[in-house]
Specification:
The structure holds two protein chains of two kinds. Helices cover 30% and strands 23% of the residues of chain A. Chain A is of the alpha+beta class. In chain A, strands 1, 2, 3, 4, 9, 10 and 11 form a seven-stranded antiparallel beta sheet that branches. In chain A, a hairpin with a 5-residue loop joins strand 7 and strand 8. The N terminus of chain A is likely disordered. Classes of the chains: A alpha+beta, B mainly alpha. At the A-B interface, helix 3 of A face helix 5 and helix 6 of B.
Chain lengths: 199, 300
C-alpha cells in the first residue's frame, strides 16, 4: 500500500510541467459577448420553465375538469326489456313476423302449436341475420351462418342455436315479450314454460 | 363481368386491388433477383460480386445515416403526399349511423381484417378469433429465435434459405393475401361464395348444411363420447404427425439437429397450425365439415 502511494507520488512528480500560459486580459468586447451569451441562456431557461409549468397547469386543469364531470352521472336510458307485440289473432300461422326486428331485435314466429320469440342476434359474433322467406331460413350477412325457422343452426360457423325469449299473454290480451329472460336450446331451455306460448 | 367491375371499382376495394398488384410485383421482383444471385453464386462468384454485379467496387457497409435515413425520409414524404391526394380524389364517404338491429348484407370488415373475417367462417369463433390471431402474432415474434440463419441479409437469395422463404410465401400469400382476396371478391350477400362473373343475388340458395367430422366419416354423433374421442384423436395425431414428417428425410433430420429440440418443437407446432388452416378450409368448403372435435362439456 505504502509502496503504491509512494509510486503514485513519484509519478505525480515526474509529470511534465504544464507550459506557462500567456497572461491575457480579456478585452471589453469579449466581456460584452460573454454577458450577451449568459443573458440569452437565462432567457431561454426562463422560457423553458414557463413551458414546463404551463404543461403542468394544462394537465391539472384538464384533470380537474374531468373530476368535476365525473360527479354528474351519465345515465343511458335504455328502452324497457318488456314490450307488447299486438294480439295473437294478428299473426299468420306458419309465418315469421319481422315487424319488431328494427325496433326490438326480435322475430315472432307463429306455428300451429303456438308462438315463440327469437332474439335476432347471431350466436357466432352478434350480427343481425336476415329472414329469408323463400329459403325458409335466417341467414347471417357477416359470416354466412344459417338457422332454421325454429332457430337451429345448421350452416356456417354459428356454434349454437338462436336464443328464444320469454313470451306470454299480458292482461290486456296482447302478446308480451320479455327480452331479459332467455331460453337456450343447448341447455334444454326450450322445453321450459315461457319459451313457447301455446295457442 | 359487370359485377366484377363493380366490385373492383368500389372505392373501398381500390386499396385491395392495388395491394394485390404490388404484392405480385414485389414477389416477382424478389424471386427473379434471387434467381440471378443464385445463378451467379453457382458460377463461383463471391456474395459481393453476385449481389452487386458490375458495381462490385461498392463498399462492404455504409452508415445508416445518411444513406438509409435520407431515402426513408424522402419515401415517407412522397407517400404522405400520395395519401393526401388519394384521399381527396377517391370518394369514399362514411355511411349513415349504424343500427345494431339491421346488419348490411353482406357485412364486410375493413380490408385489412377481411382475411380474419374469412378465417372466422371456417372455425369456432374462439379458435379463429382468439387462438389463431394470437398464434399468428406470437409466431411472428418467435421467428428470430427459431431462424437464426444470418444468410440473405442485404441481398436476394432463394437457394441459401429455401425453407424460410417457402414458408413465408405460403403464410403471407396463401394464408393472408389470398384470404383477403376471397373475402373481397368472392363473398356476396349472406357471405355466400360468388364467382366474379356471377351476379350477387340476395336470394341465392346454396345448400351448406354442416356435418361434423365423426358424423361424416364414421357415422358417430360428434356430441357423443366416442365422437368426441375421435375428434380429439384427429387433433392429437395431427400435431405430432406434422412435427415427425420432416424427420423421415435426411434434410429434415439435419434441420432438427441444427435447431435443437425446443426450437424444433416450436417450429413444428407453428407449422402444424399453418397447414391445418387450409386443410380445414378445404374440409368446410367441399365436404361441409363444421367441427373436427366437439366438446359438449366445455363451452366458452
Amino acid at each position: 500500500m505504502a509502496e503504491d502511494s509512494a509510486a503514485s507520488a513519484d509519478k505525480k512528480e515526474s509529470m511534465p510541467e504544464p507550459p506557462p500560459q500567456p497572461e491575457v486580459t480579456p478585452g471589453e468586447e469579449f466581456k460584452e459577448n460573454v454577458r450577451d451569451f449568459v443573458d440569452k441562456v437565462r432567457k431561454r431557461r426562463e422560457a423553458m420553465t414557463l413551458v414546463g409549468w404551463a404543461s403542468i397547469a394544462t394537465f391539472c386543469g384538464a384533470y380537474a375538469l374531468a373530476l368535476v364531470r365525473f360527479f354528474f352521472p351519465r345515465v343511458l336510458f335504455e328502452p324497457p326489456n318488456v314490450f307488447k307485440a299486438g294480439y295473437p289473432a294478428e299473426y299468420t300461422v306458419g309465418a315469421v313476423d319481422t315487424n319488431y326486428q328494427k325496433s326490438q331485435r326480435v322475430w315472432i314466429v307463429r306455428e300451429p302449436e303456438g308462438f315463440y320469440a327469437l332474439l335476432a342476434k347471431c350466436t357466432h359474433l352478434g350480427c343481425t341475420p336476415v329472414w329469408k322467406e323463400a329459403e325458409n331460413k335466417f341467414k347471417c350477412p357477416c359470416h354466412g351462418s344459417g338457422f332454421t325457422k325454429e332457430g337451429i343452426n345448421y350452416e356456417g360457423p354459428a356454434p349454437r342455436p338462436l336464443e328464444r325469449l320469454k313470451i306470454a299473454v299480458a292482461d290486456d290480451g296482447q302478446i308480451q315479450i320479455d327480452k331479459s329472460i332467455k331460453f337456450r336450446q343447448e341447455k334444454g331451455d326450450w322445453e321450459k314454460p315461457g319459451a313457447l306460448l301455446k295457442a | 363481368m359487370d359485377q366484377f367491375w363493380l366490385i373492383i371499382s368500389k372505392p373501398d376495394n381500390v386499396p385491395i386491388v392495388l395491394m394485390l398488384l404490388l404484392v405480385g410485383f414485389f414477389t416477382w421482383l424478389a424471386l427473379s433477383e434471387a434467381r440471378k444471385f443464385d445463378k451467379a453464386r453457382a458460377e463461383g462468384k463471391t456474395v459481393k460480386e453476385a449481389a452487386y454485379g458490375d458495381e462490385a467496387d461498392y463498399p462492404e457497409r455504409v452508415t445508416v445515416w445518411p444513406f438509409l435515413v435520407r431515402e426513408e425520409f424522402l419515401a415517407a414524404i412522397a407517400m404522405t403526399i400520395f395519401l393526401f391526394i388519394w384521399s381527396m380524389a377517391l370518394d369514399a364517404p362514411l355511411e349513415e349511423m349504424a343500427n345494431p338491429n339491421v346488419t348490411p348484407n353482406p357485412s364486410k370488415a375493413p380490408w385489412y381484417f377481411l382475411g380474419l373475417q374469412e378465417i372466422l367462417v371456417y372455425f369456432d369463433p374462439w379458435i379463429a378469433g382468439v387462438i389463431l390471431p394470437n398464434v399468428i402474432v406470437v409466431g411472428l415474434m418467435v421467428i428470430p429465435y427459431i431462424d437464426p440463419n444470418p444468410k440473405g441479409s442485404g441481398y436476394y437469395t432463394f437457394r441459401e434459405r429455401p425453407l424460410a422463404i417457402t414458408i413465408f410465401l405460403f403464410g403471407f400469400l396463401i394464408l393472408w393475401v389470398l384470404l383477403t382476396a376471397i373475402g373481397t371478391f368472392t363473398r356476396g350477400p349472406g357471405w355466400i361464395w360468388f364467382w366474379p362473373w356471377q351476379y350477387w343475388d340476395t336470394h341465392a340458395v346454396v345448400a351448406e348444411t354442416n356435418v361434423d367430422f365423426s358424423d361424416l366419416f364414421f357415422g358417430i354423433s360428434s356430441g357423443s363420447f366416442t365422437g368426441s374421442l375421435i375428434g380429439f384423436a384427429v387433433i392429437a395425431i395431427w400435431f405430432p404427425l406434422i412435427m415427425a414428417l420432416p424427420l423421415i428425410f435426411r434434410k429434415g433430420r439435419e434441420l432438427a439437429s441444427e435447431m435443437g429440440i425446443v426450437r424444433y418443437l416450436v417450429f413444428g407446432n407453428l407449422l402444424a397450425f399453418m397447414l391445418a388452416l387450409p386443410l380445414k378450409m378445404f374440409l368446410r368448403i367441399f365436404l361441409h365439415v363444421k367441427y373436427i372435435w366437439v366438446t359438449p362439456w366445455f363451452n366458452v
